[in-house]
Amino acid sequence: MLNIQNYIKVESLEEAYELNQKKNNKIIGGMMWMRMGDSRINTAIDLSGLGLDRIEENDDEFRIGCMVTLRQLEVHDGFNQYTGGCVKEALRHIVGVQFRNLATVGGSVFGRYGFSDVLTLLIGLDSYVELYKEGIVRLEDYAGRSYDNDIIINIIVKKRPVHMFYEAVRITETDLPVLTCSGVKFADTGLCNICIGARPGKAVIVKDTHDILSSGISEESIEKFADFVEKNLPTQGNMRGSAGYRSHLAGVLTKRALININK
């Protein structure tokens, strides 16, 4: 059971930051996953009055406020066009529309949840997290960190031309995923990112340590890299699938991603 002693709707980021330095105080975001936990919060910090619930788009980037809901991102025309509809595909299975109307992008990114479709979707793009004190940090680096008391203000996605693919395997339509996969090919450099999440660990970009894709995507390199992912990506088992099953899925989805982003 979640127990909250005090609630404050802050009037500035500085006020929120100062309150958040105390151990038992928490920024609540949409509170959709937090409320399912068993913990005691001294002060719940609400950022909803700070205007951080907007998606701003210009010629160079998307700037996604931390309080933007998953539903706002899911139906945003500009971001859907940029990702070739992958944002809608990634988010539409998350529980239900009512849930996505409340859950926030900032909370999903800060949580680095092992089952997160949001992190799998964003980590392979040219994405960054804007923190109140530290400034701008690459999302891939941020995802690998331990939790701290800084505050996410925005998630920034640079508008580099991309071809993108997204697919997740679920036992039922709105269940947590067994495995998630996104593929991104940057048209300006030819660089490809394959991102796997719900391993059941948090999403990672699979590093092409053997330079299998360095000469381009071909039938041969697709087979080799999919095999490399299946054999080398760390996976574990839980109630939704065994480690072996997840490894097999990782290879299959990697192959699909490479085929689709190379069209």
Description:
- The protein has 263 residues and is α+β, with helices and mostly antiparallel strands.
- Helix content is 31%, strand content 25%.
- The protein is built from 10 helices and 12 strands.
- The chain has helices at residues 13-20, 70-74, 77-82, 86-91, 97-100, 105-111, 117-123, 139-143, 219-232, 243-261, and strands at residues 3-9, 25-27, 40-46, 55-57, 61-65, 127-131, 135-138, 152-158, 162-169, 179-186, 192-197, 204-205.
- A hairpin with a 5-residue loop joins strand 10 (179-186) and strand 11.
- The longest helix has 19 residues, at 243-261.
List key phrases describing it.
single chain, 263 residues, alpha+beta, 5-stranded antiparallel β-sheet, 4-stranded antiparallel β-sheet, 12 strands
| Helical segment count | 10
Order of SSEs:
EHEEEEHHHHHHEEHEEEEEHH
Largest sheet: 5 strands, antiparallel
Strand content: 15-25%
TL;DR of this structure?
By secondary structure, the protein is of the alpha+beta class.
Helices, strands, pairings?
Elements: E1 3-9, H1 13-20, E2 25-27, E3 40-46, E4 55-57, E5 61-65, H2 70-74, H3 77-82, H4 86-91, H5 97-100, H6 105-111, H7 117-123, E6 127-131, E7 135-138, H8 139-143, E8 152-158, E9 162-169, E10 179-186, E11 192-197, E12 204-205, H9 219-232, H10 243-261
Parallel strand pairs: 1-3, 2-3
Antiparallel strand pairs: 4-5, 5-8, 6-7, 6-8, 9-10, 10-11, 11-12
InterPro entries: CO_DH_flav_C, CO_DH_flav_C_dom_sf, Diverse_Substr_Oxidored, FAD-bd_PCMH, FAD-bd_PCMH-like_sf, FAD-bd_PCMH_sub2, Mopterin_DH_FAD-bd
Pfam family, one: CO_deh_flav_C
Domain FAD-binding PCMH-type: 1-162
